[in-house]
Design brief:
Dna-directed Rna Polymerases I, Ii, And Iii 27 Kd Polypeptide, Chain: A, domain 1, 2 domains, about 35% helix
Length: about 425
């Protein structure tokens, strides 16, 4: 009965579209529950079709964050994956709303065609070029790729654009020309006039020189595709007003949420990664001093089995053992994490498998001895008879204590020994 009540409450929360909240899950499923014409501004920074695997240690070194930007079916598979998500974004935008789609050279031409179809070509407003600088290889044989593309569309013929909020300082050369006579064309006549600068600053161009986040920058969290706060602030200032709702369906580390909160907008973030959602929540608590609601489904065995390998590892090591993942991105001698030092700093091996065999236990014994520990944990979906027999053998000899735990047992709160 309790489970049914929870699921009913979850469906109601999603249907009502909780404001200032982080949604954990597939954005297409979550967006499909949101009401029509309910959001003022959408900024989307999806995977770029870069054919890369990203993997980093973050959250004060406790967790691993990884994701694939690889598409076995090629660009058509990627576009078919993006299309329903962009259609949902269009549906939930208000008639006066706008959307900014962040991409780069890998897929920007394909996404432009797709957006023209969904939003209609007449509602295309700008192709913004975000320029930045960073280190290049000395073996570079082409021009350095130092810009991203941001496609800006409105939902209809009226949209919010606060130009005065994003005006920029004039250059020294422009200031030097102030007061000079100029010629301009007006109503078919050539008339003379004086160059007068707007006291609020110059009208912004569609190319933005905003620095890339440096490795030592205070705002850097370790997310491999993190965008600068200044970039999101410019978009939000220009295309929304105080009190408007800003949505980011690929929220990553939550930069859109931070910018929206600081600019007095309401916000909603969505990400499929439980690790990313936890990081966003902590970031909002630390920087913005707010405690966002984290909306997610019921965490049962079915949910656990759908987790990506690194997410499953984080769930085991960090959530259940309160430990830290290995500081080696791909593990170290079969050790995926350690329990807290206060509980012994014992090694943990995580296997996202059924029927884990004796061979796995044998290899883990070697890893435990190598780091001079007398105890360790192996977590899997299930274990074979041989694995339990080997654990009993080494324990009876007084050599090592190896604890086998299933994911189901961890869900039930069974972490330590019986």
């Amino acid at each position: 009965m309790a489970v049914k009540k929870f699921k009913k409450k979850l469906k109601l929360m999603i249907k009502c579209m909780e404001i200032n909240s982080i949604y954990e899950g597939d954005n297409i499923e979550i967006l499909s529950k949101f009401p029509n014409k309910s959001v003022n501004l959408i900024y989307a920074d999806p995977p770029f079709f870069s054919d890369k695997h990203y993997e980093v240690i973050w959250n004060d070194g406790a967790e691993i964050r990884a994701f694939q930007d690889r598409w076995k079916g090629g660009i058509q598979h990627y576009i078919s994956w993006m299309k329903p998500k962009l259609m949902e974004c269009h549906r939930i935008l208000k008639d006066t709303g706008s959307m900014y789609l962040h991409c780069d050279w890998h897929a920007n031409s394909y996404l432009r065609i797709l957006m023209d179809k969904i939003f209609e070509k007449k509602n295309f407003r700008s192709e913004i070029i975000w320029c930045y600088s960073r280190a290049t290889s000395p073996k570079q044989k082409t021009w350095g790729r130092m810009h991203d593309t941001i496609l800006f569309y409105s939902k209809g013929k009226k949209w919010t654009f606060n130009v005065d909020a994003v005006r920029l300082p004039y250059s020294e050369s422009s200031k030097g020309r102030e007061g000079f006579k100029k010629m301009f064309h007006k109503e078919g006549d050539l008339k003379g006039g004086k160059c007068e600068l707007n006291p609020k600053g110059k009208f912004p161009e569609d190319w933005w020189q905003i620095p890339f986040i440096r490795p030592n920058a205070t705002e850097r969290l370790g997310h491999p595709t993190q965008k600068p706060l200044a970039l999101l602030e410019r978009i939000i200032k220009a295309s929304s007003n105080k009190g408007d709702i800003v949505l980011d369906p690929f929220c990553g580390c939550g930069t859109t949420l931070v910018a929206s909160q600081e600019l007095e907008r309401k916000w909603i973030g969505i990400d499929v990664s439980p690790t990313a959602c936890k990081l966003m929540k902590k970031r909002m608590q630390k920087i913005c001093k707010v405690n966002p609601l984290l909306v997610k489904g019921d965490v049962d065995l079915s949910y656990i089995k759908k987790l990506e390998p690194f997410e499953f590892q984080n769930w085991v090591v960090v959530d259940k053992f309160l430990g830290k993942v290995s500081d080696k991105k791909s593990g170290d001698m079969g050790i995926d994490g350690l329990t807290p030092q206060i509980t012994g700093g014992y090694p943990i091996q995580v296997k996202q498998s059924e029927g884990v065999s004796r061979n796995v236990v044998d290899n883990f014994e070697t890893a435990i001895r190598r780091i001079n520990k007398k105890k360790g944990y192996i977590v899997a979906y299930s274990f074979g008879k041989g694995a339990y027999e080997e654990v009993a053998r080494v324990k009876n000899k007084g050599e090592l204590e190896i604890v086998l735990r299933t994911a189901k047992e961890l869900l039930e709160g069974k972490v330590e020994n019986d």
